[in-house]
Known about the structure:
The complex is a heterodimer of chains A (about 425) and B (about 725). Chain A is α+β, with helices and mostly antiparallel strands and about 425 residues long. Chain A has helices at about 10-25, 45-50, 50-60, 105-110, 125-135, 170, 250-255, 275-285, 410-435, and strands spanning about 35-40, 65-70, 75-80, 80, 85-90, 115-120, 140, 160, 165, 180-185, 185-190, 195-200, 225-235, 240-245, 260, 265-270, 290-300, 310, 315-325, 330, 340-345, 345-350, 355, 360-365, 370-380, 390-395. Mean pLDDT of chain A is about 85; it is low at about 1-5, about 10, about 20-25 and about 145-155. Chain B has 33 helices and 7 strands. Chain B has helices at about 1-10, 15, 25-45, 50, 60-80, 105-115, 125-150, 155-165, 165-170, 180-200, 205-220, 225-240, 245-265, 270-275, 280-300, 305-330, 340-345, 350-355, 355-360, 370-375, 380-395, 395-415, 420-455, 460-470, 475-500, 525-535, 550-555, 570-580, 585-595, 615-625, 650-655, 655-660, 685-690, and strands at about 510-515, 520-525, 540-545, 560, 600, 715-720, 725-730. In chain B, the strands form 2 sheets. Chain B has a 5-stranded mixed β-sheet, sandwiched between helices. In chain B, strands 1-2 form a two-stranded antiparallel ribbon. Mean pLDDT of chain B is about 85; it is low at about 1-5, about 450-460 and about 675-700. Chains A and B meet through helix 4, strand 25 and strand 26 of A and loops of B. Chain A: One of its GO terms (biological process) is protein N-linked glycosylation via asparagine. Chain A: This is Dolichyl-diphosphooligosaccharide--protein glycosyltransferase 48 kDa subunit. Chain A: InterPro entries: DDOST_48_kDa_subunit, OST48_MD, OST48_N.
Amino acid sequence: MAAPRHHLLLLLFLAAALALAAAEGAAAEEGPRGRRLLVLLDDLAVRSSHSAFFGSLQARGFDLDFRLADDPKLSLHRYGQYLYDGLVLFAPSTPRFGGSVDQSAVLEFIDAGHDMILAADSSASDLIRGIATECGDPEAMVVDHINYAVTDVDGDHTLIAGDDLIQSDVILGSKKIEAPVLFRGIGHAVNPSNSLVLKVLSASPSAYSANPKTKLSSPPSLTGSAISLVSVMQARNNARVLVSGSLDLFSNRFLKSGVQKAGSKTRYERAGNEQFVTETSKWVFHERGHLKAVNVKHHKVGETNEPGMYRINDDLEYSVEIYEWSGTSWKPYVADDVQLQFFMMSPYVLKTLSNDNKGLYSTSFKVPDVYGVFQFKVEYQRLGYTGLSFTKQIPVRPYRHNEYERFITSAYPYYTASFSTMGAFFIFSFVYLYHK
Amino acid sequence: MASMATTALDSLPAPLRSLRLKTKQQELLLRVSALALIYVLAFAVRLFSVLRYESMIHEFDPYFNYRTTLFLSEHGFGDFWNWFDSESWYPLGRVVGGTLFPGLMVTAALLHRLLRALSLAVHIREVCVLTAPFFAANTTLVAYAFGREIWDSGAGLVAAALIAIVPGYISRSVAGSYDNEGVAIFALLLTFYLFVRAVNTGSLAWALASAFGYFYMVSAWGGYVFIINLVPLYVLVLLVTGRYSQRLYVAYNCMYVLGMLLAMQIRFVGFQHVQSGEHMAAMGVFFLLQVFFFLDWVKYLLNDARLFKSFLRITLTCVITVGTLALGIGTASGYISPWTGRFYSLLDPTYAKDHIPIIASVSEHQPTAWSSFMFDFHILLFLFPAGLYFCFKRLSDAMIFVVMYGLTSMYFAGVMVRLILVAAPAVCLISAIAASATIKNLTTLIRSPQTTSGKTTGSKAAARGAIDQSLPFQHNAAIALLLGAFYLLSRYAIHCTWVTSEAYSSPSIVLAARGHNGGRVIFDDYREAYYWLRQNTPPDAKIMSWWDYGYQITAMGNRTVIVDNNTWNNTHIATVGRAMSSYEDEAYEIMQSLDVNYVLVVFGGVTGYSSDDINKFLWMVRIGGGVFPVIKEPDYLVNGEYRIDKGAAPKMLNCLMYKLCYYRFGELTTEYGKPPGYVTSLTLLLAILMLLDKYDRVRGVEIGNKDIKLEYLEEAFTTSNWIVRIYKVKPPKNRS
């Protein structure tokens, strides 16, 4: 959607958001996610120090509920229903949440298919670290960076300008982020065995993780580009979580400040932070990169009804419609790499689906000469997109006894032989019995 | 007997005496009423199971038969014939129509339709439950006819009476035991009777009837292989002993050719009669008979001994060469399939144990213990050799057949427990000859002094009288012997009734045990679990369990299973065995690849139910290891000993089956004063289980792993007595 850009007053944001919300209400196309977000803060001051970020969320139609993290009335759900569709956890130093919320409640919230933005900093509590670890990023540690520390704000090289961003239009938007992203906080390692986690913003090769206030007595355990500054995780149920090692990343100050990388001549008027946080939050809250598959259909060639069972060697057609959520409406998803498997313990048929650019993917093939319980299986996992994984079970039966050829041409000699023998035997018996 | 009735009638008042029948008529009346009583008895004695429990289908295989019968009666024969079942053997499916013997189902469906036509609104289940008793009753009629054919009508009656209650047969034909054998024994005996009759008369009509009997047998049970091997063997023996006759020629040729053609109509049998090694004997004998006939004819034409001899030599050489060549080429080219493992294991009882664990693992395939013979035959075991003596004394074509049937089936009964069933009719027939002949002799002895003292009625009686005089206490001795015989026979009847009511009437799906106070305790856990599956799982859920429970889960739980009792795919069963004997994470991968949603295990540790999965577990290891060598049996044993306590092998304590069986078992105290996790020693169990379960171990031990944590599965349901436990396979972790 044509989101109002930065430089606008908060009031204007709100007005535009209201107008857009009204317009959308009329258009009434339901997105993949709701718009109620719970924002948990350590300190209500964050609300104003990060107002640009919150403003952009509100401008995009999100309904933010700002709460202190230790609010005793805090609750994620009531009567079995979740009250929120997403969580913004900007409370890095909270030792424990108020109300009924705790670490497992947050994780359940994610496992129920909700999204979360989590920001930590060097004061991150065990609770926040625990949640981050459970979301696939173990061992959150204090990080410090020498080489890429940047001018303009501070002097001890803990402020870094990261530009090692993930190459994904889906996550970061189609417009390239030119300026480096300012970051100050802790880095984390990403569990390499966890394929669901992606490093969105990685540290440079010369970065390392340590406490800048103390002297290094042993080599830092986390160094170089193994350090992830901002990472995302898309769970199997498509819940998305963004873990940032820096809360300041989202702050008005970083959003608005200019940046110049050490050793580099170019100075940017604006850091890449604003674009970065807007685009990643769009991704996290499913405003982008969400696919849905509907109308999975299959039938025999020449028929329209879906049968309960196929026969071996039947010719069939399979089709599915795949749409992508653009933030305002479902648009046809266009790709040439969606594949269909006809699967029974292993794929017997593997076909790339062709699409008509209107979202309809289809193919046709012959059922293999093997009976059993097959599945139409589409497993479509692409970077940044929600995983599409749907199967439809269908048994394939062998021929019925009367579906074989009745008379086989090559067997005519045998038919002739048997019938002539029978005839001859009859004549012989007749002659033998009655010819005297 | 007839004379006794006569005296009874003599004492009747005058008006009734006018109804007096001629002796022949009296005899007929007696015979018919005795037969009718036997018929009713055979049916009634099999109803214990219905009275004790309820009208239900028993055990494992009958559930499949019931399910297919239900399908047949609902969808008709065409759909049944072409039925592809996608609910079993997931994901392979099973072509049910082409892999079963349809005789039983068709019979029950026809009976059901007949009853419907007679406006009797019965459920198909009642028909199924009562099919086996009905056919057992019919078997008594066949036994009577058979006995009359080979000896006399007295022997026929005794044979009918014996077979009506012989435990070896009852074990497979009580009400609810809706299995192929129920009708197959009837078909078997009928085929034999008709064939013997055809041999005796040389009539084409009887041979044709026997071919149809054979067809029915083929349609009903895989045991038809016994017929198709015994009959040619019999023909061969007759040829060798010089008893060849035109009657034999007609009977065998007609029966074989027509029977073979008819049998080919059964999809499951197909072309086996010309393609499988097990059926080659019949074909060989068929050709041999033609050669024999041809030689006979040539001999008749030539009328020259020397010329014929040389001709015979040439012909025999040619025939043997051609036969051997044909067999050799057929076998080498794979056209004739080699003998199956089951067949081998009949000839060599140790074969299955060494080569095919899946056959050896079935308790009814174990070699028979002597106690089983005693249990199933009782006095027939002693009457059988006596009967053989009588048979040899009056040797005829028919007698040779019965003797061969008796001896071969006795051998097979010794090899496999379940084949006692096949031996039962033969044993009854031969014993009946012994009993009938002995009693007849004794009664003649008892009556002869009276008759001889009065008047001499013929040379036979005179001769008997002559012997009588040489034995002074003969009369009394005969009475004593007769009383003894009646005592034995009554003991037999009592034993049979007792066995039927105590051992063979248990449905095994509902378990009964004696409580501490002697009262009956009913464990209905199986049905509880299956009902839970039916009600609480999604309709396309896939259940993994050991194959024993497959039929029951599909029939009662109406859910898809991975493997079931139709053990047609050893690899698939081995995969399940491997999953059960692997660590949880390895098992999880296997279960994911098979789309398993639930795992069902049977656990007897709480109730003392001995045929549970822990006792079957070594077979899972063996069968799994037979295909996947990563599973090694020694890993589960400690010094060759199978144990589950603290000293058990570490792999044993952590494999999936152990974990699923003993999950949370540590929290439970099964017996007062014993530590938690103590497996009760066997409480009272069914005698049959103890008799048949060769691989049972009494596990009166404390379990070795009490603190079991499950990572990839979660407990979904455990029945009230813990016999069946169902676990849900968790989906992959959401965040990693």
